Structure formats: C-alpha cells, structure tokens
C-alpha cells in the first residue's frame, strides 16, 4: 500500500518544476509545508512565495522558483527527503546533520517549530530531520 507523504510530494513538485524550468509551482498547503517554504525563502533558495486560500480550505502555496541569471541553473541543486513516514529520522542536538559542511541546510521539525539545523544547534534542540537542501 502506498503511504502518501505530502512533504515528499512537495519536494518532488519543486524539483520537477525546476527541471522543467517553470517560474512558479503551486502546491497544496499545510502548516509544515508553509514553514518549509518560509525557510527556503529566508535562506535564499526561492525567490518568493504566497499562501492562497482555496475553495476546499486547504489553501495553496505558490512558490516562485529561483534560477541563476547567468547559468539559468536552479538555486536549489538538491532537495532530499530524509525522514519518511515509514522510517522516521531523528537527530538530537548533538547529532544534528551537517549538510555539505554547512553549505546546505537541514530542515527539522522540533519542539520549537520547523527550523534549520543551525537554529536547532543554537537552541540546543533536536527533532525530526525533514529534508536536506543545497
């Protein structure tokens, strides 16, 4: 049986849109996905985003993708799902992942909300490692 993994779906939609060179990708919203989107924006991996209401109340996230002006390459090289519904991956404050020596970021779901590995280190909290971005 297929478990749906909305976060994996979100990451895949972003990856596919980038590969196709789209400017904008629309994704069904959730609080977790909104938080991930805000981090991607804050860290400069996407140009912009907008949360939109929809008829079914789920809402949509419109993500404006970012590309290098010269090379036309996507700002996000790699977007990897780490924790999966069937196999959750957790890290405590001491074993927080380092994504390519700190060039990339890990996004974690912690008791302090959805934050980057760097913020988790500063707050000395661990949590579920949602994904790696670089």
Write the SSE topology:
Layout: H1 6-19, E1 24-28, H2 31-42, E2 46-52, E3 60-65, E4 79-81, E5 90-91, E6 105-110, E7 113-116, H3 117-123, E8 127-133
Antiparallel strand pairs: 1-3, 2-3, 4-8, 5-8, 6-7, 6-8
Can you give a write-up of this model?
There is one protein chain. The chain is an alpha+beta fold. The protein is 25% helix and 30% strand. The protein contains 3 helices and 8 strands; from the N terminus they run αβαββββββαβ. It has helices spanning 6-19, 31-42, 117-123; strands spanning 24-28, 46-52, 60-65, 79-81, 90-91, 105-110, 113-116, 127-133. The strands form 2 sheets. Strands 4, 5, 6, 7 and 8 form a 5-stranded antiparallel sheet that branches. A 3-stranded antiparallel sheet has the order 1-3-2, covered by helices on one side. β2 (46-52) and β3 form a beta hairpin. It is globular, with a radius of gyration of 15 Å.
Jot down its keywords.
alpha+beta; globular; 30% strand; 134 residues; 3-stranded antiparallel sheet; 5-stranded antiparallel sheet; 8 strands
In short:
With 134 residues, the protein is α+β, with helices and mostly antiparallel strands. 25% of the residues lie in helices and 30% in strands.
């Amino acid at each position: 049986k297929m478990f749906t993994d909305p976060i994996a779906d979100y990451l895949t939609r972003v990856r596919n849109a980038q590969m196709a060179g789209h400017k904008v990708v629309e994704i069904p919203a959730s609080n977790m996905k909104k938080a991930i989107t805000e981090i991607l924006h804050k860290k400069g991996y996407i140009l912009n985003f907008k949360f939109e209401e929809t008829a079914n109340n789920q809402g949509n996230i419109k993500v404006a993708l970012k590309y290098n002006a010269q090379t036309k390459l996507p700002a996000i090289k790699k977007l990897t799902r780490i924790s999966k519904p069937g196999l959750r991956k957790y890290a405590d404050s001491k074993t927080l992942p380092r994504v390519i020596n700190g060039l990339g970021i890990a996004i974690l779901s912690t008791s302090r909300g959805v934050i980057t590995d760097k913020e988790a280190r500063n707050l000395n909290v661990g949590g579920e490692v949602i994904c790696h971005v670089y």
